[in-house]
Write a structure and sequence with these properties.
- The protein is an all-alpha fold and 247 residues long.
- The chain has one domain (5-105, 119-241).
- The protein is built from 13 helices and no strands.
- It has helices spanning 5-19, 21-43, 48-52, 54-60, 62-69, 78-103, 122-140, 148-160, 165-176, 181-188, 192-205, 211-224, 228-237.
- The N and C termini lie far apart (43 Å).
- The relative contact order is 0.17.
């Protein structure tokens, strides 16, 4: 049976929220900003569905994820949390990219345009979820300090959150394997919105408190072609001051 990457992503997100206060805070801050964005889009009469797939984000669990981030129950299913995480990342990418375009008139940065929203197929959603999961795992091991105790803790957390043995084995294998930056960069080629999602997920997966982690994030962003405005927007959106961010 093929792995359900949406379920596995949901378990990974829930485990990250439970084990890393800093990472959980970044997700919560981003959630606050996204709530404001949803309100502004609706107020302006724009179609969220056309821009970033609003109906599917809601169906996928963005409401459940935001509720969890804002202090609600953590009994939400892994699939709903996985779908909600993808929705949150999609909205973050929309906000970061459109605000970057508004600020920048440099031709060299035109690659950061937001394309017209195209309804992803279930296969595309699963593929994107796998890339996001890979990015979060790479970020977790960027400082090279995933030891046996940490692996056991991660395994225990994932199992307690309902991840099957196949999913747990997948994550542990990835954590023990080589970095997959090249795979991530290839997957986001020509898709600036996915590149922004990857950077956002990587940022939210760790505390970013070592030079190795900072250098990894810088290298990843550069390799994916994200310009400085997009990076700053994402970092600002996940900061405590995101309520002052104006799209």
């Amino acid at each position: 049976m093929a792995l359900n990457f949406m379920d596995l992503l949901g378990s990974m997100v829930q485990g990250t929220m439970a084990s890393s206060p800093a990472a959980s805070a970044r997700m919560s801050n981003a959630g606050n900003g996204i709530q404001d964005l949803l309100g502004s889009l609706m107020g302006a009469g724009q179609s969220v569905t056309q821009r970033v797939g609003g109906d599917n984000l809601a169906a996928g669990g963005i409401g459940a994820l935001l509720g969890t981030l804002m202090g609600g129950s953590r009994s939400t299913t892994a699939n709903a949390l996985g779908g909600g995480m993808m929705g949150l990342l999609g909205m973050m990418a929309y906000k970061a990219l459109t605000n970057s375009n508004a600020k920048s008139a440099a031709p060299a940065q035109s690659q950061a345009q937001v394309p017209a929203y195209v309804q992803p197929t279930p296969q595309q959603q699963a593929t994107d979820a796998e890339i996001i999961l890979t990015a979060m795992i790479d970020a977790a091991k960027a400082d090279g300090q995933v030891d046996a105790d940490e692996l056991n803790k991660i395994m225990s957390n994932l199992k307690s959150l309902g991840a099957g043995q196949e999913g747990v084995n997948y994550v542990i294998q990835k954590l023990q394997g080589p970095m997959e930056t090249a795979k991530i960069v290839a997957a986001v080629k020509g898709r600036p919105e996915l590149a922004a999602q990857v950077y956002s997920a990587s940022l939210m997966a760790i505390e970013v408190d070592t030079d190795a982690e900072k250098k990894y994030l810088d290298k990843l962003a550069k390799a994916m072609g994200l310009n400085s405005n997009v990076i700053q927007n994402i970092e600002y959106l996940t900061s405590a001051q995101n309520k002052d961010f104006v799209c």
